[in-house]
Amino acid sequence: MEIIMLHHPHKLDREKLPALAMALGFFDGVHKGHQQVIQAAAQIAKKENVKSAVMTFDPHPSVVLGRKHKHIEHITPLEEKKKVIASLGIDYLFIVRFTSDFAALEPQQFIDEYIIKLNVKHVIAGFDYTYGKLGKGTMETIQFHSRGQFQSSMIEKYESGSEKISSTRIRSLLKEGKMEDAKELLGRPYKVEGTVIHGDKRGRKIGFPTANVKLSDDYFIPKMGVYAVKMLVKGKWHNGVCNIGFRPTFKNPDEPSLSIEVHVFDFNHSIYGEEVAIEWHLHIRGEQKFDGIDSLKAQIEKDKQAAMKYFHLDGHIE
């Protein structure tokens, strides 16, 4: 997949681009609803003998359009989004830098400069997609703005359990710790990536060594607590149990930062500095504060057994 970054006003020459069938959207999560749109673009491209493409935007429009600074936590930050879209077999990914000038484009200007000028022959988007200043352009108006240069296809609302699949709904599930429900809507387990850094080594001292993971991007943080997880280390997935929170038992008032610590089953390698990925599978329990080391150790062992049972290990650690 070829990735093309665009800054407004862009200088791309239509004559140097292949004919494209392009899916439009922000696509945070690249969930099953988004996949319907992207896969439709791939199918139309094949049918019409053109190249498939996706156009997305960075940063999130609300960062630019909001009245005050807004920090966005993503289900799929840009780097993760690139990987997921590439996995869907798309030929080109256009990432448009979302700025005030870009947001001010009238719908016709957007179509002229970012669809027609990019040699797009077929536009595919969800029923609720909007474009141009104040979102005045819709899938109802797009053929009017097309100047007869391209066709368009609107993908209807995609539902699960009689409710629209949306990034907002997935965020709500992650916030409640409902990881299996989130997986159903995403089409894959929720995943974050990061680097293993040095922690305070308390886990090792009590017999449960952990990998302390610093996230590599602004990911949406699931509900605090303990989870059954899988962690990717050097190309191999390992089962484990993860605590995410502010470590209430050993909380240091001078260090109120979020802590993500993974205890990997049957694993005793030093992996400091390694880039890892964590898949969140099951929320086992919420955050707790313990009276002492013994009660903490007993609970961690229970958490470990719960995670092993979830992964059907039955006492045998892989």
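Next protein, fold it too.
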Amino acid sequence: MAVGQLVLPEFNAIAGLRIGTASAGIKKTGRKDLVVFELAEGSNSAGVFTLNAFCAAPVQVAREHLKATSPRYLVINTGNANAGTGTKGLADAKKTCTALAELTQVKEQAVLPFSTGVIGEPLPMEKLLAALPNALDSLTENGWAEAATGIMTTDTLPKGATASCIIKGQKVAISGIAKGAGMIKPNMATMLGFIATDAAIEQPLLKQLLKEATDLSFNRITIDGDTSTNDSCMLIATAKSATVSEADLQDLATFRQCLISVMQALALSIVRDGEGATKFVTIQVEQALNTTEALEAAFTVAHSPLVKTALYASDANWGRILAAVGRAPGLENLDVEGVTVYLGEVLLVEQGGRAASYTEEAGAAVMKQEEITLRILLGRGQVQETVWTCDFSHDYVSINADYRS
């Protein structure tokens, strides 16, 4: 089960966007596993994709189509990643686009495909194509909740977020869903994420906003340090409400903060639902020279199996934290006597060793909590960055050992 409460919100409907969900039986018979997004004409879209060299066939096709034209439809399947499938996988991804384009009377390039699930197995095209009409028949402005369930793989709960702000006297809505619980160290975004707004935003600015919000949300989380072959995140603007532009800096700042809040909520819900997670952990690195070294230190601690298993055991083994900080890339000439570490409000480390005020009882009391904050003060500068992660439990091993069975 997830750490803390993960409850889908009452989504703001996004004018100009409809979502349909159907069952194709790709991995499990009867399970909703196919989702279609329909974007109104005049919508703009931006995307970020995995940096994994073995990126999946749908990632390659989606990138190509996004460069060619503004998408009108997104099609997502779960249960099969269509990754590591060679030329046949590419052909299948394109065939999916062609089939949906024919059903909706749009160009093939106006359809973007997305897949998630098992790597290396052929996509069951007959099942997928047969279910496309059902997905189209179910299109509705209120389809967010069903879609959030329809894109899940090892997730235990669906993930969604919604918010609104006032731009030029008009309400501007933002809603989004995401999936992900394992193979999470998204070197760009999350496993799959789809966020939409009814604002009117030109594509170059939309792309910039997506990158900025991604860097402060999905690029600040990790479950296990593995970057997926299928990571994709889309931001859609349907142009049915107020215009957001660089001409009005106040409106732009308001919208940017609203977007970041939605994307951070989605990102943190992925960490809370990490495979086998029992602890939600915030790692805050302060007094760094620059952003790069702050993030390197935070991620090195977050990825450490020794730190993560100590968190699971509620063992305040602070030596593992020091060891991780000490081997973080880029921390040249680190003065260890200047490093200070806090576990919650408990001072763990100062002047190169255990703090004189520290007791095992105080450390253990914090480690038993479901939500833990670890602060690492490097004593080198003024930059601060935050990364979110979880612990490693026995269940993480079991889930991934049994994933294909």
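About the second fold: The chain is about 35% helix and 25% strand.
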